[in-house]
Description:
The complex is a heterodimer.
Chain A: E1 7-9, H1 14-24, E2 28-31, H2 37-42, E3 50-53, E4 63-66, E5 69-73, H3 78-82, H4 85-90, H5 92-97, H6 104-109, H7 112-118, H8 125-131, E6 135-140, E7 143-148, H9 149-152, E8 153-155, E9 158-159, E10 166-173, E11 179-185, E12 192-201, E13 206-212, E14 219-220, H10 222-231, H11 236-244, H12 260-280
Parallel strand pairs in A: 1-3, 2-3
Antiparallel strand pairs in A: 4-5, 5-10, 6-7, 6-10, 8-9, 11-12, 12-13, 13-14
Helix pairs in contact in A: 10-11, 11-12
Chain B: H1 20-25, E1 40-46, E2 52-58, H2 60-64, E3 68-73, H3 74-77, E4 105-106, E5 112-118, H4 121-128, E6 132-137, H5 144-147, E7 163-171, H6 174-180, E8 183-194, E9 203-209, E10 214-219, H7 224-235, E11 242-245, H8 261-273, E12 277-280, H9 283-289, E13 293-304, E14 310-322, H10 331-338, E15 348-357, H11 371-389, H12 393-400, E16 409-410, E17 416-417, H13 422-432, H14 435-447, E18 451-460, E19 477-483, E20 489-493, H15 502-514, E21 521-524, H16 542-569, E22 577-579, E23 582-584, E24 591-593, H17 594-603, E25 616-621, E26 630-639, E27 646-656, H18 663-683, E28 714-717, H19 735-752, H20 766-778
Parallel strand pairs in B: 1-12, 10-11, 14-15, 20-21, 27-28
Antiparallel strand pairs in B: 1-5, 2-4, 2-6, 3-5, 7-15, 8-13, 9-10, 9-12, 13-14, 16-17, 18-26, 19-20, 19-25, 22-23, 23-24, 26-27
Amino acid sequence: MIPVAFDYHRPGTLKEALALLAEHGEDAKVLSGGHSLVPAMKFRLAQPAVVVDIGGIGKLRYIRKVGSRIAIGALATHHDIESSDLIAKECPLLAEVAPQIGDVQVRNRGTLAGSLAHADPAGDWPAAMLALDAEIHLTGPAGKRRVKAVDFFVDLMETALQPGEIVTEIRVPATGRSVAYVKFAQKASGFAIAGVAVVADKKKGTAKIGITGVAATAFRATASEAELKKHKRLSKAAIKAASALAMEDVDPMGDIHASEEYRAHLARVYAQRALELAAKR
Amino acid sequence: MAAQAKPKPNVGKAIPRVEDERLIKGVATYVDDLKLPGLLHAAVLRSPYAHAKVKGIDTAEAKALDGVVDVFVGADVNKHCGVVPCCVEMPDLVQPKHTVLAGKRVYFVGHPVAVVVAQDRYIARDALDLIEVDYDPLDVVADAEAALEEGSALTHPELKTNVAFTWTLENGDLTAAFDEADRVIKQRMRHQRLTPSPIEPRGCVASWHAGEGAMTLWTSTQIPHLVRTMLPDMIGVPENKLRIVAPEVGGGFGAKLNLYAEEALCCHLAKRLGAPVKWIESRRENAATMTHGRDQVGEYEVAVKQDGTVLAIKSKTVADIGSYLQLNTPAIPTLTGSMLTGCYNLKAVRMDLKGVYTHKMSTDAYRGAGRPEATYTVERLMDIVAYELGLDPVAVRRKNFIQPDQFPFNTACGLTYDSGDYDGALRKAQQLAKWPQLLKQREESRKNGTLFGIGLSTYVEICALGPSSMMSAGGWEWGCVRMEISGKVTVLTGVTPHGQGQETSFSQLVSDKLGIPMKDITVHSGDTATAHYGRDTYGSRATALGGTAILMSLDKIIAKATTLAAHLLKVSRKKVQYEPGRFFVPGTDKSISWNELAMEAYVAKNIPRNFEPGLEASSFFEPENCTYPFGTHIVAVEIDRATGEVKIVKYVAVDDCGPQINPLLVEGQVQGGIAHSLGQALWEKTVYDEYGQLLTGEFMDYAIARAKDIPDYILGHTVTPSPSNPMGIKGCGEAGTIGATPAVANAVIDALSPLGVTHVDLPLTPETVWKAIQQHTAQPAAA
């Protein structure tokens, strides 16, 4: 559990951080809360020669309202989100996801941005980001660009982040109360075997559904969403029909914790549960 | 002379542990906290293959790394270290030579191949990556049953067989019992492999004292005294020049009841390099290379009468023991055989056991050590019998219980149970569980289509191991009580508590007997230089045996002090009476306190002729028999039909461990034991793939119980003193683990029984349960 030796930098500004990344290229890794990178380094699965700790860039730790959206800075921890009044009021889905992540120690250190950059296929946040149509702000040598959540998660542990870029902010819309996140957790790790986030529009009878844990990357259950549109009401029957389609065109993963068949089944069960919960709210 | 203020009795009181303050404050000393001048650090290179030829090892680059002191391979060290011992003798036992480092082959993932010694732990770890080993992978034996088939690859080709040993237990007239049976019910059951997972992994520090030719080894072990007995054969340092210290130990659970290759290796390195050497394993090393538990599969047959009388049990069991024998490896599954009839009066039993080598880590003791497998088997069988015969599982148990007036009872397995009132514990548990309401709750839940089940287990176990006749190197226990010149008391015990709390319970015992406050009593253990002799802590033996040795020493001290008191009070010895805290002459105002006596005993200017100065006594206690704690666990569960998740809605445990010195400690043991057991019943399973790769090598993949997984327990006790020791104490360290697994399994399977499910192997993970539901609902209903 001892990492390979590495150089450690803790820049005070984003500019310095970007300069360090530019200088060291692929040898460098960004550290924020350290709850994904550090374990990987201890197992020697990750062996960066240079670690750029952005924890010293105090400006990146914020949660604030920007117009009709909520902006979450790169250093906002899971606990910051869990305990934010603004989030609880304006984007309750995030407030529901946060306490389901890891344990108190993890939530006190780990960050939303770090979790997204790591893109663990069983992470909780990606489901919520997809259901919320979140916008992920990346800052790199060429400046800032915005990527939609649906375009951000590319594959297993792979995102739209380019070398030299840092996730600097996440923007999510304010929503109503009709949201839900439910997950079936892997017993040992607590990560999602199936996690389903729903942002519903009860008036229109529609919902956006993000699913994590089931496939190589989190995904939008588009077939389910389309089915709901047909029904125009979040009725029991609509939810049942929609959740049955949660795994349409998705290849489930299988491992010692859950077979492909069981994972796919759980995704459908939890889609139904999340939709029912959101429809009740 | 005024009497000391008499403290209130402490025995029987739920007193918080005196150990806790240092543990909670983080000021306790574990092995890794030790820092010696010039300390070097060892790291072990381990095989990534389950079976391979080692064609060559190139250590040049590692040796050249700045800060590396040296790197050694098997050829360098094995000739200086004896083989890792197994203390179990069996007539047909065949065993490979278990050297400290691998020789020309590796036999399991994690097999030590080389060792680096460096100035610090970081350099040592980096150097491991610089060692180049040329492996030639060979066929892997990954399944014990397949290993018995003809043409199977061999785990150790030189042994020409995969069978390490066979063991047959047969008692009673088996043929008659099966002839008498109305039915023979068969079931195959698997007891999955488990990873003990103490929070503190293994580790040691070895320090060689060249001038004295002596070695000190600090090691995270349950058995410093046994290590001192066995280590001389490995490192060539005689027992009287060896000091073994188990400092604070963060959990053992039977897996630290061993002598490991790394302990001998560090001693050798310290001597060879002339500097103290520390080795601390990582969590991954711990999961892969500390002994595993369980791993048996059995075909069981029960001979029963239509009225539920169980006549006999027959079993063919295969134990997957991994690649090497550790200290007690072959003994563990035989303990299963010895307890196979549980608390039932059976006419006959037979177990045919095969211990089979595979390319995995060795198995050995793990909390319960063979008894959980026995209890699980017989308690599942009781439920299966009841189900098959359409009888009430409670009634079937009652019908077959050994009755209280039958003790001492010679079991079909060949043991003599000392005492018991099995129905007493069952009645108490039913009362705590509000049995009639619980049955009603099940009925109503089932009407609503809910999968609701009730399970119970009425268990008996064997503890306080044991009479020396049963053990390979003594089953007695040692204790010493010394009253210091100041009147403070030092207690030395040969047991080695590592979480069980005997610093507290022994202080309670001594405090009451001597009338001295607990704060003036110190209990030392775990250091062979102070607690000179002992047989350590395992098999729930410490309080029953170690406590008795202290009790005997207290009696000796009081007897000696009575002689001194008579001398000082100038009366004949017969006239002196003792009550905790003082010696007095009834009917007079003559009395003397311990403080005064202690001072006189050591100053020794005014003592009787031929009176040895000092106030110290030590004792060896040799028990006549083991103890047989018992109890009943009742569990109610609800199953989520859609996901297979099991929710425990009620948990009742009644344990009879005899009289309790400290009910808080007992409760802690029972709670922790049940937590372990829930793990086995519902989540835990050590998984190797077909290539012998360990897939559950860290806590991200191996699911031990977390605090949030534990339901509220309703705990109760009955008290049936054991005749095996003067205090009647039986032991409670493993009771929870032994009693709970079958109760949970029975509850889950009871919940599934309306679907026609009769058995599902452990662990009952959501997917396993879901699949059982699928299999039994997808089929068309059988008429």
